[in-house]
Amino acid sequence: MTTPRSAGSRTADAAARRCAVCGQESRQPLHRPGPPEQAPDLDLRPGEPMRGTMARWLQQCPQCGYAAPDITRAHPAAAAVVAAAPFRALLAEGGHPPLARRFLAWACVLEETGALHAAAEATLQAAWVADDLAQPELARVWRLDAVALWRGGPALDLEQMVRVVDALRRAEAFDDADSAAAELAGTRPPESVAQVVALERRLIAAGDTGRHTVASALPPPSRRPHAAMRGHKPGPGLWETLKRLFRR
């Protein structure tokens, strides 16, 4: 995986942070990444240079194990979650990559405090770590866990529905993925979403579990072509532009 500096993140090396759960002070990374210049994957994993900075997305307390984007902040119930047996067992799970455990620790806190969609996002990020380390079975399990969390929370928006389809496809749950894609197509979504769903259905039919980008779903002459297809280097607003496509 690309190191944080070579991936283009703009960071201070670290700063002292006091854990909101146990009060322990530790040095933690301060992550202020530059915007991605490459297209995101269909599940909206960002392109480079942001893609290679995952090791700095979360902080983690070395004392109690609490993980969050900023460990100086915590839900009032977080301390009870961190002290509970499931969280302690997760931290001790030697079969999981350390970075993936950090994302799963954050997902555990989010789930237990009721933020199911945010927990799904963190769980999917653990699957991305497994992808990078060539551990497909872990990636498959965590994608299915992410889908369960998305489905267990409030009604999904279009972006989340697309991500569910992609997670199911990449987890080899093809029947479920195709049913979810057909349901989404039946809502008559905006053109950009319809193009992504059409690509997903072709990939599902082919039994393709691989990584594909949003750019591959929105080729020219789309009415809203992907920035990378316009004959010039994508600008700094590409990530937000692509995300907005799912909300039109």
Structural features:
single chain; disordered N terminus
Strand element count: 4
* Shape call: globular
Radius of gyration: 19 Å
* Main sheet record: 2 strands, antiparallel
Please list the strands of the largest sheet in the order they lie side by side: 1-2
Q: What is the averaged pLDDT score? A: 86
Portion of residues within helices: 40-55%
Summed up, the helix count is: 10
Oligomerization: single chain
Summing up helix and strand content along with how strands pair, one would put the structural category as mainly alpha
Q: What do you see in this structure?
A:
The protein is mainly α. The chain has one domain (15-245). 46% of the residues lie in helices and 8% in strands. It contains ten helices and four strands; from the N terminus they run ββββαααααααααα. The chain has helices spanning 78-83, 85-91, 98-112, 116-132, 136-152, 158-170, 174-185, 191-205, 214-217, 238-245; strands spanning 10-18, 25-32, 59-60, 67-68. Strands 1-2 form a two-stranded antiparallel ribbon. Strands 3-4 form a two-stranded antiparallel ribbon. α4 (116-132) packs antiparallel against α5 (136-152). It is globular. The relative contact order is 0.12. Mean pLDDT is 86; it is low at 1-12 and 221-243.
Quick description:
The chain has one domain.
Question: How would you summarize the topology of this molecule?
Answer:
Layout: E1 10-18, E2 25-32, E3 59-60, E4 67-68, H1 78-83, H2 85-91, H3 98-112, H4 116-132, H5 136-152, H6 158-170, H7 174-185, H8 191-205, H9 214-217, H10 238-245
Antiparallel strand pairs: 1-2, 3-4
Helix pairs in contact: 3-4, 4-5, 5-6, 6-7, 6-8, 7-8
